[in-house]
Design brief:
The chain has one domain. The protein has 4 helices and no strands. The relative contact order is 0.19. It is elongated. The protein is an all-alpha fold. Helix 1 runs antiparallel to helix 3 and helix 1 runs parallel beside helix 4.
């Protein structure tokens, strides 16, 4: 069970970083629309690219987390403990997929 809790902690971290990417992208848009910062000095294109990089990195964090989860599950399995990997792998892969899709969304909706 500790292995699954660790995977869930990595998933929460990944989702938080992905959320930070959205905040970065949308905050720049908010500042521009509010008129606080002139557009030539603070372009939304830079913030969108930067935010997309954050979202991709947040998504990519799940890859080593999934690898560690799978390795530990294998080690647990050799000792006779059998746990389904389906839920952990589905959660991790869906987090990666959603994060990458959100990054594409950020780039497309600039």
């Amino acid at each position: 069970m500790a292995n699954e809790r660790t995977l869930l902690a990595w998933t929460r971290t990944s989702v938080a970083i992905i959320g930070l990417g959205f905040v970065v992208a949308k905050f720049a848009l908010f500042l521009r629309n509010r008129g606080s910062v002139p557009p030539p000095e603070f372009g939304t294109t830079f913030s969108t690219v930067f935010a997309s990089i954050i979202v991709v990195l947040g998504s990519l964090i799940m890859i080593p987390a999934l690898a560690a989860y799978t390795r530990r599950e294998g080690a647990i399995a050799t000792e006779g403990y059998r746990e389904s990997r389906v839920l952990g792998l589905a959660l991790g892969l869906s987090t990666v997929g959603i994060g990458l899709l959100l990054a594409v969304y950020l780039l497309v909706t600039d």
